[in-house]
Amino acid sequence: MTKHSCSFRAQKREHRHLLFSCVTLIPIRLNANLCCGISATKFPATNVIPPCDPTADDRLYHICITAISLVVMLILAILARRMKVGDRQKGLPGLLSPVNFLDHTQHKGLAVAVFGVLLCKLWGLIISPHPLPFTTDSQNKRENWVILGVFYYPALYYPLLACGTLHNKVGYVLGSLLSWTHFGVLVWQKIDCPKTPLIHKHYSLFSSLPQIACLAFLSFQYPLLLFKGLKGTEKNNATEDLSSSYYRDYVKKVFSKKKATKISSSSADKPKLPQRIIDAVKSYIYTPEDAFRFPLKLAISGVVSFITLYQVGLLLISAVVPSLQTARMGVDEDIANLLAGFKIMLSPDKHEVVRIVVYYMWCVEVCYISAMTLSALVNLAMLMRSMVLHRSNLKGLYRGDIYNVYNCQRSIRASRPALVCWMGYTSFTAAHIFIGMIIQTMVFFLCLLVAVFLIIIPVLHRQNLFLFQMLWSMWPFWLMILLAVLIQHITARFCFIKKTAGTRDLDNRGNLFLLTYLLFPVNVLIGVLLAVWRLVITALFNIVHMGRVDISLLNRNVEAFDPAYRCYAHYLKIEVSQSHPVMKAFCGMLLQSVGQDGKAGQRSRDAEEGIQLVQQEKKQHKVSSAKRARGHWQLLYTLVNNPSLVGTRKHFQRQTADSFLNGSLNRSTKDESKKEAGSKEAEAAAGN
């Protein structure tokens, strides 16, 4: 035995730990030289990737880009202040809001790209041993630097998003310069240092690909917006929201769909099995619609979820697969001595033992890669299904179909918990994708290991059939269960149910009661199997749908205790109550009918408050009496039917909370109030 070989008598306790590491084969940083008992000289030092310092120093770059971003932010603040003064608006500059998350008509590419860049930087912040580039020795206070980095990177990339807020040529020029700088330096650094010692030599390069793609999009989009602004063909300006034809097209689409449904409802035929299969497949494929635009938050959440899926998959592959390959290549004849110390004899020939161990380790590697791939595909399918369900839920709430979305009565209005959930919805979605994919990979990996090593390999080699031998030894039990189930189904079909005149009823009730009594003990055993099957199905369903927040993993009666679904339900409340397409279409038509010619900020404020429209009468415009009367009636109709104003009226303050549905008085309550008013008038007339 060589100097580096394993000695069972001298190192019994160490070998137990090492054998467990070799058998489980799920190391994070596995030392293959020790695990398999081989000499360290088999792996020369050339495989070690030394730290790489790019020509564009990261520390100097961040100091310069932070100063440049601060200057850009000051310039944008001055421009925003001047624009507000020119529009005769009061208050702080609008630069504090980098993007209007409740505007469905704006260009979503800039916000989506910046959020993608920010997510990649935050991901590197957690993985990298040096969270911030300002310090090199940060091992002692790494947690503090991580906390600082959580706030540093959003502030660093804030000007990159704010440059497109003002819809100004100066902003587009500054955005182009910033995006080119970020993109150029990042590509320069990756070309200088394509290999790094972090996790895997190419992990840092592949991890930065989404960030490079987002910065490349920004580097192309800002010059394109500048070019459109110079030519005067830019459509994405501040007045696009209420004046956009999207809301009017949506209303027209709603009316046209109502007519189509009336015609199609006459031919209500049950679809056949092939058609149902096609419909089930289509339910997982998102197809864009012209008359519907996704909210900005949902668009950002979709891209962020996809980037999270990519980053987690890359991390799971880079952290485990190279270690498995290194351990498999390091197996030699000493593994036979190690296994013999634990009384495990795979074969008397050591070369055969090496071949068997290498084959088993290769099977483990295949199982792990298959589990990770299956988890990624499942999450991708769930993400596409969520996009389809998001659109269905939003359209359902737009038309007031609350019970089909929430399964209970809910008030669609802004509230404190709803606003908090709306703010963190995108972040919560990414976090659930991260946790869900890790759990799915672990569960799928264990299931594949059981299937491969207990079913597939024993069947192929016709040996070590432990599972089949155990099941075969219990054949009387399985035969009893099978016969009991068959007897109950056959007797229920032919003996205990009779069909007369197209109806079904029970028959032979005495024999039915006797068979029920006799099969009680057997049904207890069947119930145990059903309970185990129920547990497996429930666990698999919850694990598969862990990354989705648009469905509850709990029962309908307790779905409020599901924090993810509760966040999603509150998010929908804010989106529907603040960005309803019909409401915005009505506000746009109302402003247009009364001759509103103000700027975008004034229009938005008038559309939200509504009461300022009364002051339009004071303006000296030549408006006909018919238009003036129509505007007054539209204003009156809006104020009377405004759900947020119902509770402030004297008559409705006497109603109970159950009388209101989504801020509006129920129809039955209205009828009762009318009857009460009529009875009071009759009593007053009789008294007189």
From TrEMBL:
Pfam families: RBP_receptor
Identification of the protein by name: Receptor for retinol uptake STRA6
GO cellular component terms, semicolon-separated: plasma membrane
InterPro entries assigned: STRA6-like
Keywords from the named record: Cell membrane, Membrane, Receptor, Retinol-binding, Transmembrane, Transmembrane helix, Transport, Vitamin A
Species of origin: Amphiprion ocellaris
Residue numbers spanned by region Disordered: 657-688
UniProt gene name: STRA6
Main location: membrane
